Amino acid sequence: MKFKSIILLLAILILFFSCSQSDKKETENNEVESFCDYENEIEMTVKGYYDKMSDTLLIENYEFDVKQSDLEWINDSSLVLRLMNYLEEDFYGKLDEDQYEIIISINARKGKKLSEEFYAYHDYNSGLWSRVNIVTSLGTVWFNWVSGMPAQGGVSLDYIGENQICGVLNLNVENLNSPYIGIVKLNGKFSHKKD
Prior knowledge:
eleven-stranded mixed sheet; 11 strands; 2 domains
């Protein structure tokens, strides 16, 4: 009789523990979904930038409408997120004049793993850095910089998971006297969730 009571007690404890874990997991998922439920709201400006471009590129105060995105984990300390303003069926092997991609690379080193942090643009010394560029039909736009200019900015991650990422872009360079810098700005919220 005592043995049956112990077995019954263990079964009740296991059932209770598994239910509480299930509720906890569901709550965590709901919190993540509500945390990353904002829409992509990215504003892009490119003016006076000629570095390795095949022609003059002028994109001013453009609201980047993300129509598809792709998240690729390289390892636990490196990923690449691609945001595109076109659908796959509208791509014919080469970008059209009004098609753009924003490529966001997030990296960590020195034993660090990716987490909800700020990743400054090309700040290799900190151990946490981002690399962001804009791919156009005329070439790739970078956030070039020279000594004496304010730092370019970076990428803040609000949430990062295996199939979901969201955060804020805050990248700005401005020097119209240099065709290698020009004015390049990329600011706003981004969100990706794998279906």
